[in-house]
Amino acid sequence: YTQETLTVFKEVTAEKNAPLILAQHQVYPDLESDLKADYQKFNRHTVLAALNQLSNMGFSVAQHHIEHGIKNVQNNTGLMGRWQIMSYEPLLIYDTAHNTQGLGVNMKQLSSLKAK
Known about the structure:
116 residues, two-stranded antiparallel ribbon
C-alpha cells in the first residue's frame, strides 16, 4: 500500500466500522506457488490474511486446501501474464505490472536474474 491508499483504507474501514488488517504486518508461512514473481509473496500474504479473518468469523478452510490452492493458482484460475516465462532462449517474460511498485519489484527481480 501507499500512504495515499492507506488513508482511503482507514476512511472506508472507519465508515463501515470494519477492522483494517494490513497483511504486510503479519507473519505467514512462505507457501509454494506457481506464481513466481517476487511481488506474489505480498499477494499470498493478503490471501492468508483474508483467510485468517474468515477463520476468526467462524469459517473454516482446511490447510491442505489453502496450500493446494496457492500452489496451483494458474491452473485453478487461468491467470496469465504474471511473471510468465514464455522462453528461456532468449529469456522472454510476460508480466502485466500495473503500478509503479509492481514494476519496481519486477525490475529488481529481473536484475537479480541477470546477475546470476
